[in-house]
Each structure stands twice: as structure tokens, then as C-alpha cells.
Amino acid sequence: MSHQHARQNIEAATNEIKVHLDTKHLLYIADDCEQDRQMISQLQVYCPALTQTRSVTDAIELLSSNHFDAVILTASISVEDLRAFSESLAERVAIRDIPIVLMHKVNTPEPGSELLESLRNCSLTSAAVEPVVLLSQLSVAIRNHRAASRLREENNSLAQWRHLHDDDMETASKLMDSILGNPNYRVDNMRTHLQPMETLNGDIVLATNKPDGGQHFIIGDFTGHGMPAALGTVIVVDTFYTMTLKGFSIAEIARELNQKLFGMLPTGRFLSACLIEVQEAKQGISIWNAGLPDVMLVRKAKGIVHRARSQNLPLGILDSKDFSPAIETIAIEAGDRIYAYSDGLIEAANHERTQFGQTRLNEVLNTQHSAETVFLQVLGELDSFCGNAPREDDITFVEVQLDAVGNTGKELTTRAFELSKPTMSWQFDMTLDTDALKNIFPIPILITMLVDVQGMKNHRERLYTVLAELFNNALDHGLLELDSSMKSTAEGFTEYYDMREKRLQALSDGKVAFSFNCHPREQGGGELHIGIQQSHNGFDHAKVMHKLDTNTAAHGRGILLVRSICEQVTYSDEGRRVDVCYAW
Amino acid sequence: MITTREIANQDAIEIKISDRFDFSVLREFRKAYENSNKPVKSYVVNLQGTSYMDSSALGMLLQLREYAGNNYQNVKIINANTEILSILNIANFDKLMSLT
Description:
The complex is a heterodimer of chains A (584) and B (100). Chain A is of the alpha+beta class and 584 residues long. Chain A has helices at 3-13, 34-46, 56-65, 79-90, 113-118, 131-180, 226-246, 250-264, 343-347, 357-366, 374-386, 434-439, 443-454, 460-479, 490-506, 541-550, 558-565, and strands at residues 26-29, 51-53, 70-73, 100-104, 122-126, 190-195, 203-209, 215-222, 271-278, 284-290, 295-299, 303-308, 328-331, 336-341, 395-402, 426-432, 512-520, 526-534, 568-572, 577-583. By secondary structure, chain B is of the alpha/beta class. Chain B is built from 3 helices and 7 strands; from the N terminus they run βββαββαβαβ. In chain B, the strands form 2 sheets. A 5-stranded mixed beta sheet of chain B has the order 1-2-4-6-7, with helices on one face. A two-stranded parallel ribbon of chain B has the order 3-5.
């Protein structure tokens, strides 16, 4: 049959059916009989490069060294040859899945299903099949084979990628552990339960002691999980520790964190957090809550005595100029506990999709457990409520124990500490005017200066205590005329800080001036003279002098401690000025 | 599922979220406000029937707010149920946009 004739045949047959055969590479294994020759010439219309071979051995050879998309086996092939073909194919991974169409002649023995299956990708068709039908079968078989190959390749590359990824995650996780878990900064009055969804997550719980003996805590929850959240925590960790150790307040730390995160995070990402300050004599705590559920103060035999609501936008949303931290300050009693937690705890659900909820949590906190077991009680209730329902969010739960009123930690002895530099002669004056007083807490900055200029790192805590006490006296009692005895009741305590804030903002005329004067002593060592002067006019100086002298441990370690740290403490200018001599 | 409609006589559009306001609607939500052929000044986010909202939804609202010009008036949330309102309040979003 001529080509033209063949084409006409196919065209006639394919009038209604158009078959697209996307290949030039077909292998036709057949004896050279008339039927085969006809079929071949018809196929060659669509596949001019169709290759023909008589022996299965040659076929294997051809398949191994050339690219073919499909194999056509004709009816004339013997079962033994077929078996040999199958065995040879099976050994060759690259070609053993090639689509095969086996044309079977009626009334001849069929190859068994076992043999067919061993050919892996073989379909049976009649030897009397119409060319267009065969083409259609081939088309589908080739398409499927290509899809399967692509899928296999993708899976392999995915498996490789996953392996690399898991490795990276493990490394990153170890890094995070060492960044977050710096043992130098830990406190011993906090219990934490962290249950993140992924190893790399944005849950933050940090705590450390301040230079004056108080403590700072931060509990935070970044939006999202994984690497982006984890990266954010690194910035927060560094800022929190550095600023706390220098003596900055939680308001200033919040502001700095907000600014850093606002600049760093894309819109839509933020850090819900709360910052807690425990004052050094443990008379009170300050809480800044930005996006976490109510932070609870729980008292023995009373349950929840205070709920610090979130009154601030989470960190990273507001521009600096719009950032205005709302902080609550409340009195505490020995034995009190603070509980802070992420919304994951409240929203944890059981199989019926009911949430654990704020009410259930409050119930546990309010029930008269012994203080030591409340923490575990909450976790136990949560566990039995949720059962083995799948978790949907990170769970963070933190307890801070406020056991002893009084000094948190180290005793400040009067032992002389070495300086990291020899004592030099220098002098430094700084005056804070009204607007500066409203916006700056100068102590950390001054301490940093003393450390940097005169190498007084080992004296940080003592100097901080002295400067903070004297400055607070000058500002609170001097310029703002506040009365410390207000702090002896719980309501008065909060009122004191509210009033302080109001009066500070309303201050229209007031200055505080610092002077530092350092020089070595002939016999060795040196002395630092610190003078603090406030400018308030017309106050009852006798009353103030009396207060200053009797400011005892009830309202802070006070002036007694300053007197024990410094060689000399002198008041002058009707109580407006204090001079101390700190020596080593 | 997000549906959008123009609010007659105002340069405003209403975006309605059904059922779950979470990460799965991120693309749709963005398309809803990015692809409008008219100039739009303000947006109303209708949470009628929305039963669930997570922090990625808060993120989406922040992005919408930024797109709309970072002003209090330009984004309004309506028909939030008690639970969702409480999530928005804990996050203090009432400082950023009107909530009902």
C-alpha cells in the first residue's frame, strides 16, 4: 500500500476522530509479515521515524541506547520471547516502565496475566485494531508515562529538599535555644510551660534581674510560626536583656522594641506581648499588656485579685510618634503569683470544637489550691479538657512567684570593687529641664557613662541604687511633692503612680541637675562625688528633710541603703540638694 | 469565601467574609481591595456569619488599613460577633478602626 493510500485510509478513518501523537519515537517489534507491514506504514504517517526490529534482543539494545516513548509488540511474538523481553527490561531501571502495547491475535494463546504484569506498563489490544485506535491508546499511554516520570522526579527532588530543610531546622533550633536560654540571665522565681506548634516559633518568655534588685519579665507571641517569627525573637531577646541590665524601665523597653519591630516587620506582622516589672523591694509590680489575654494577679485564699487587661496595640504596628504605653502599677503581697499566657491557651479546643476558655481558666485560678500546685492544676485541666484533639496554636503559660518581700537577691556589701581602668580626674554635669524630665529616665544613661568613662562595671548595681534613689527623691518628693506613705495601702499604691504620672505631665517649671566629680586618692583608690539638685520653689523644706531622713524600708530600702553605700550623704539648700561621696 | 460589593453613592466597597477569616482567604481578601476599577476611599469589612478569626486575619486588616491610607476612618468593621469582637479588643484594634 502506498503512503498516499495509507494516508487516505487513515484520513477516512479519522474523519471524526483526530489523534495527536506527540512523539517521533516508536519502536515496533514484529516479524516481517504482511499485516505488520500494513500497520507500520499506516503508523508511519503519524510517526515517520518509527523504528522497526525483529528481535527482542535488538529491541533491548535499541531501547537502552536511544530514546523511545512507546513500544508496540505484535501478535507474532512468542511467549518465550516476551518473557525474555520482560526479564531484560526489568533489569534496566531507566526503561522498565516504558509504555508497551501488545497486539494479540484471537485464537492464539494469551500471555498469562503474571507475564503481562511483569511488563509493568503493558496494555493489551487486538491484532485487528484500527490504526487510529492504536494511535489513541499510544497517545494516552505516552502521556501518562510522562506524567508519572515527572511526578517521580518531583518526589525525589522534594525528598532531597526535605532532608536539607530538616537539617537546617535542627541547626536553627539549636541556635535559638542557645540565644534564648542564656543561663546568665535566668531568674529562679518563674515557671514556664511552652507548647509550640513548630520547633521554630515566635514564643518568647524571658526574665532577668535589674541592677537595683528588681526583675523584668517579657512574655510574647509573634504572629505566624517558623523562621520569620523566630528571627524576630532574636532582636527582642537582645534588646530586652541589654536594656534591663542597664536599668531602663519597661516603658522605655516597650518603646524601643516597638520602634525596632515597626522598622523591621512587614505590615501585618506584629508581636503581642506583656512586660512586667517587679519592684526591687517587691512592694509592687507594673504591667504593660499589649495584645495578650488578661494578666492575672492571684493571692492565697482570695484567688484573682487583679486582671491587667491589654490596653495597648501589639508591638510593631504603631509608628514611634503614635506610641504611648499604658502601664498599670499595683501593690502586691508576699506570696502573690502572676499568671501570663498566650491566646493559644484560651482557644485550645477539644474534639467538639469547644474552647477551654477564659472562664475555665479563671475557675482554676480562683479555686483554693495550694500555691505550689496552681500551675500544674491549670495544665492538668487543660490536658483533660482537650484530650487528644489536635492542637491549633502555640500554648504559652507562665507563673511568676512573688514570695518574699524584701531584697530579691544579692546583698550590696561595702567591699571595694576593682575598676577596669585606673582612677582618673574628670568632671561631668547634666541638667534635665521640664520636658526632659517628662520624657527621659536618665539613670541608665548616666550609669552607662560612668561604666564607659571610668570602667565602673563592677559598681553598676551600687551606683544604680544610689542614683535611682536620689533622683526619685528629687523628682517625686521634691518637684512633684508626692508622699511615699500613700504606698502603704493597695489603692494608695496605684494612686501614687497615677498621681505621679499626672503631676509629671503637668509640671511646668522644674529642673534636676546632676554633677559628677571624680579624682584619685593619694593613698590609692578614688572617690566619685555625685551632686543632685532640684529647682522646686516654695516647698516645706523642714517637712521634706524629715521625710528624707525617715524614708525607711516600708517604702523602699531608701536613704538608709544609700548611706550604707556612700561614705557621706549631705543635704543642703533647704533639702533641694544632696551630695554624696562614693569611694573605692 | 469573600464577596465584594460597591456601596451605592459612596466611594466605598464592602468586603464580606464568610465563616472563617484566616490564612486560607489571604489571596482572595487582597484581590478584593486591590482590584477595584473605581477609586475607593473607604472599606467596610462585614463579618456577618464569620465564626472564626485568627491572628493572620488581624494581619490582613492591618494591610488593608495601610492600603487605605492608614487613617481611622478608612476601614470599618461591622457585624462582628462577641468572640471576634473580644479578639479585636484584646488587640486594641478599636484604636485603629471603627468596630461594631
